[in-house]
Design brief:
The chain has 78 residues and is mainly alpha-helical. It has five helices and no strands. Helix 2 packs antiparallel against helix 3 and helix 3 runs antiparallel to helix 4.
């Protein structure tokens, strides 16, 4: 499952950095999914902060609040 891989990569990013192969797999997942939470999360993991923030800004206020409750939101620019 994609979400499992995304979560593993989040753990990996906190401990180390992501390899190019890891980033390539994340980009593949991002390109196959329309879900904004996936796209934001992956962009944050691969340091595409501008794209992550643009997608985040398009969420409803309720969705933004929900996303901010996830640990990965620590990578969002405030």
């Amino acid at each position: 499952m994609d979400i499992v891989y995304i979560n593993k990569m989040q753990i990996n990013k906190r401990k180390n950095s992501l390899t190019d192969d890891m980033k390539i797999k994340l980009i593949d997942i991002k390109n196959r999914n329309e879900a904004p939470f996936y796209k934001i999360s992956i962009n944050l993991l691969i340091d595409s902060l501008e794209e992550a923030n643009i997608i985040f800004s398009q969420l409803t206020e309720q969705e933004q609040t929900m996303f901010k409750s996830f640990p990965i939101s620590k990578y969002l620019k405030k």
